[in-house]
Design goal:
By secondary structure, this protein is α/β, with parallel strands linked by helices. It has 19 helices and twelve strands. The strands form two sheets. The chain has a ten-stranded mixed beta sheet, sandwiched between helices.
Length: 510
């Protein structure tokens, strides 16, 4: 690799410097949208610049042929939308308006891909950037910050650099954003674990009904060999939806279908007037969502809540119900991250949980360590549902609550933790179902294979300690040894006291 190649670290250092320009006027939850949008525009502009140079050489400066080829490229970049144009106009008195016009032109030129992507932000907003003079100063500095970031493909250290950098930056913005961060980003290692557990295959349709910035979808896609899969997502927050689309493009997932809207009340992934069906559905939906739309659930046109209507203040089972109803009846797999209350809460949630178990859909319950997620320190769990369990009615329980590396602000799953969980799950899948009512310990204080009879005996309570015995026996105390050690310590203490007494006499203090 040449020394002048741009790496992820170089990109990140330049972008973080640009963040310093916006930090005085807005919080990270807001400036991430402006920073990542400008990074996206810079990348598209540099790709266009490199392609234009190539076409100029190939067509000997024939402008008609050059323009014709540029119109056929992955993205059409109007001149007024290029980063160089914006930078050249950095001294204009209406710089915010110049940038907004450029973004609108970029949308118009790429309607099939970018319609509405930039509509949720405005670089010309007085409420965001302040009065005109201050706004112009901030935006001019911001463009200058990005000037030396050369993102031409030939200058990047690898094909994944820009996509990886975008993902890395989203993660760091999540780290700054506090409670709001969980709305747009799932920690990378948790996404990797979930992606491996749902075992996506070539040809699969994969969906995330609460896709945030798209990190989980991208991780699942990476588990498939080759490009023979299709990605679908829905996101309720407009700016996060736009972020997800840009993230998909920068990871070269151009064919992904990412829709904007409320999944529970207005599902957008529809086919032939019915819910679209998928092979794999994954999600990290908002925990215990209040006011999720329970009042409309009974009249749901897609009958997603036929097992019961979750409480109006806790939408966890509403998302689970939606996810299961959008999988193929013969082979659908669901992987969902949930708060632990989902495992044991009563009332309507117990009714739904019981039906899911009786229908033999639940395959695994995996307890995760505390403080893994942005915005909450509570431990979460992963539920795996599988429509293809067949005659196997057993359920795997894993207690991975101690499988982590401590961090300053957050804990992290290590590679060995992920491998351990996945290995136990894979071995469970390969093993024969239990013949009888009594379950079996797979690994002491870590994994247990429970029978349906045991779960019924526990009144369909899935609380992990009911199945995985995590009791650590106390070390036996040798009283004789302790007594002897105490005698020795008393003797040493007496000698020290005598020595101190001697020192005090020598100093005429006593």
């Amino acid at each position: 690799m040449e020394d002048n190649k741009i790496t992820r670290d170089i990109i990140n250092s330049i972008v973080w410097k640009a963040c310093d320009t916006l930090r005085p006027v807005m919080g990270s939850g807001q400036y991430k949208d402006y920073i990542l949008t400008l990074l996206f525009v810079k990348y598209l502009s540099d790709v266009r610049k490199e392609k234009e140079a190539l076409y100029k050489e190939r067509y000997k400066g024939n402008e008609t042929m050059i323009d014709r080829q540029l119109q056929k490229d992955r993205f059409v970049i109007p001149e007024k939308s290029t980063f160089d144009y914006l930078y050249d106009h950095r001294n204009e008195s209406n710089l915010g308006e110049v940038i907004d016009i450029g973004l609108t032109a970029l949308e118009e030129a790429n309607r099939s891909k970018l319609t509405n992507v930039f509509r949720s932000i405005s670089f010309n907003s007085e409420a965001v950037f302040g009065p005109t003079k201050q706004r112009n100063e901030i935006l001019k500095k911001l463009l200058t910050d990005f000037l030396n970031l050369d993102l031409k493909p030939s200058h990047l250290a690898g094909n994944d650099v820009i996509g990886d950098s975008y993902e890395y930056l989203i993660a760091h913005f999540a780290g700054e954003a506090g409670k709001k961060a969980g709305e747009f980003y799932t920690p990378s290692e948790v996404s990797t674990l979930l992606a491996k557990l749902v075992v996506p295959k070539a040809g699969d349709r994969i969906a995330d009904p609460a896709c945030g910035s798209g990190s989980l979808l991208i991780k699942v896609a990476k588990e498939v060999q080759g490009k023979n899969y299709s990605l679908y997502g829905q996101e309720n927050n407009g700016s996060t939806w736009a972020l997800c689309l840009m993230n998909m493009f920068l990871h070269e997932q151009d064919a992904a279908t990412i829709t904007w809207g409320d999944t529970l009340n207005h599902p957008q992934l529809i086919e032939n007037d019915a819910l679209m069906k998928f092979d794999v559905v994954v999600a990290n939906p908002p925990f215990s969502l209040d006011k999720w739309g329970a009042e409309n659930a009974a009249a749901d046109p897609y009958q997603r809540f036929h097992r019961g209507i979750p409480p109006k203040t806790k939408g966890d089972y509403a998302f689970i119900s939606h996810m299961i109803e959008t999988t193929h009846e013969t082979n659908g797999r669901v992987g969902v991250i949930v708060p632990h209350g989902v495992l044991f809460r009563g009332s309507s949630e117990k009714i739904i949980r019981q039906q899911l178990i009786e229908e033999n859909l639940l395959e695994a319950v995996i307890g995760l360590p505390a403080n893994l997620f942005y915005g909450t320190s509570i431990p979460a769990a992963i539920l795996i549902f599988n429509r293809a369990k067949g005659a196997n009615t057993d359920v795997l329980f894993i207690d991975a609550s101690k499988a982590y590396e401590s961090g300053k602000n957050q804990n992290h799953l290590r590679d060995e933790d992920i491998s351990h969980i996945v290995s136990v799950y894979q071995n469970y899948k390969k093993a024969k179902p239990i013949n009888g009512k009594k379950g079996s310990v797979i690994e002491e204080r870590f994994a247990y294979r429970a029978t349906l009879a045991e779960i019924q005996t526990n009144d369909y309570n899935l609380n992990i300690p009911r199945y995985v015995d995590t009791f650590e026996p106390e070390t036996l105390v040798d009283i004789a040894t302790v007594h002897s050690e105490l005698g020795q310590l008393k003797q040493e203490l007496s000698q020290v006291e005598q020595q101190i007494e001697q020192y005090l006499k020598e100093l005429n203090l006593v």
